[in-house]
Amino acid sequence: MMGLLFFVFVLAIFLGIELISKVPSQLHTPLMSGSNAISGISIVGALLALAVENVSEPAMIVLGTLAVTLAMINVVGGYLVTDRMLGMFQQKKKKEGK
């Protein structure tokens, strides 16, 4: 079971790197909001996986905690960057209105 989970984890890393490297810079911001939604789903899935009663292996607990932590960092960071970018557009509109 752990071997399959590790394989999926490594595959997701390589797939993510490949996808992000092919995205033009103009599309990074819209994709970030989609990434935040996916990370929210990952948080729920990781919490559900940790809530299973028969999780006794320390490695599973560590991987689940790591998944929740990294997904939360992604969600919070994505919202902060999106808020900052929206703030830049608001300042631009205020300057044009003067």
What does this structure look like?
It is a single chain. Helices cover 87% and strands 0% of the residues. It has helices at residues 2-22, 28-51, 58-97. The chain is an all-alpha fold and 98 residues long. α2 (28-51) packs antiparallel against α3. The mean pLDDT is 77.
Q: Class by helix and strand content?
A: mainly alpha
Number of H- or I-type helical stretches: 3
Question: What percentage of residues falls in helices of 4 or more residues?
Answer: over 70%
Q: The biggest beta sheet, please?
A: none
SSE arrangement, N to C: HHH
Query: How far is it from the N-terminal to the C-terminal residue, by CA?
Result: 63 Å
Radius of gyration (Å): 18 Å
Overall mean pLDDT score? 77
